[in-house]
Amino acid sequence: MTENSSYELFIxxxxxxxxxxxxxSIIPYSQRAQALLAIxxxxxxxxxxxVAGLRVAQVRYWIGRFRNDRLxxxxxxxxxDIEVLIKEREKQDKSANKPIKKK
Length: 103
Hints:
Layout: H1 13-23, H2 29-40, H3 45-52, H4 56-69, H5 76-96
Helix pairs in contact: 1-2, 1-5, 2-3, 2-4, 3-4
């Protein structure tokens, strides 16, 4: 396949939330997540590499790993930290959307 080839990853909504959080974390994990999200959004391998700062071969490698292992391509400790972060955000969102009680 060429660097303009596209792939389908079928990322779930839950995986997308986790990948978006990882994309904002530390390198190299953020680059990998950015590339996977770009591929899922329809970018070519070359475009995803450009967005994430990875070579085409690296993007292809992470596509293959993700297809086989899904989010487990990332370290367990990072996934735990991201899970805590997501739960905190959800809690903040819920409290921000709570109606104010009138007296």
